[in-house]
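User: quick one, sequence for these tokens?
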């Protein structure tokens, strides 16, 4: 869990999503389109669409953009057909990296992802070589300054959370995927606004990266992958100390 948490913390500190709002909108539109195509345009009966629509609203995406993306997915409007692709690889220090992408040209995207990996000392690996090191989980983050730890822990565990932890600034709630929405609803019903709430891939164990330039290369590699327009999610199992993170920031 620490690897995912550390990267989430880095992204938050850098304000990467806000600084690249146009790129974020493009990624969300693709995800809405694919979710609607695979599960229909009704968020009440399509959990994946419901989740991404929440993300779109949190990013302040205009309602017209959301509506068009849904209709392109259901076929009510013409649109590009996206293919879901998962890439697996390794970064410096043996860090495992799992990359989820949506693309209209798999050959192009594959070549570009491989190039990003190799430029930062990583490599692409075969299917199944990395995925087994991650588990799909619900992940809810709440800032420490808005709630007492015992209160939040009680809310989360009573709603079905499977794990609860804390970092320097936040509380982290882990759920099974099927319990995510129930736990998130319990948190919001208590008047709390999560800093982050998503279905994600949590590493089973973290690889400690304790020296530069390996740490710098890993951070830059994951950030460069995140920046690619076809990449929706990047998961990595690194653990870098707070001291080294501050040095590299």
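Assistant:
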């Amino acid at each position: 869990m620490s690897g995912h948490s550390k990267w989430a913390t880095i992204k938050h500190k850098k304000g990467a999503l806000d600084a690249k709002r146009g790129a974020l909108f493009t990624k969300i539109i693709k995800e809405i389109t694919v979710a609607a195509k695979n599960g229909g345009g009704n968020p009440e009966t399509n959990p994946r669409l419901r989740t991404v629509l929440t993300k779109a609203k949190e990013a302040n995406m205009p309602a017209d953009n959301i509506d068009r993306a849904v209709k392109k997915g259901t076929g009510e409007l013409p649109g590009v057909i996206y293919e879901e692709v998962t890439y697996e690889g390794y970064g410096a220090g043996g860090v495992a990296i799992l990359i989820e992408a949506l693309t209209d040209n798999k050959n192009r995207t594959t070549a570009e992802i491989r190039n990003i990996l190799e430029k930062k000392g990583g490599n692409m690996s075969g299917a199944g070589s990395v995925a087994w090191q991650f588990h799909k989980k619900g992940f809810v983050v709440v800032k420490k300054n808005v709630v007492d730890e015992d209160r939040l822990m009680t809310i989360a565990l009573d709603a079905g959370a499977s794990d609860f932890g804390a970092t320097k600034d936040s509380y982290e709630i882990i759920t099974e995927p099927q319990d995510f929405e129930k736990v998130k609803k319990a948190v919001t019903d208590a008047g709390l606004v999560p800093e982050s709430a998503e279905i994600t891939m949590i590493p089973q164990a973290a690889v400690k990266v304790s020296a530069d330039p390996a740490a710098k290369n890993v951070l830059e590699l994951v950030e460069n992958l995140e920046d690619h327009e076809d990449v929706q999610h990047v998961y990595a199992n690194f653990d870098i100390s707070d001291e080294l993170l501050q040095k590299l920031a």
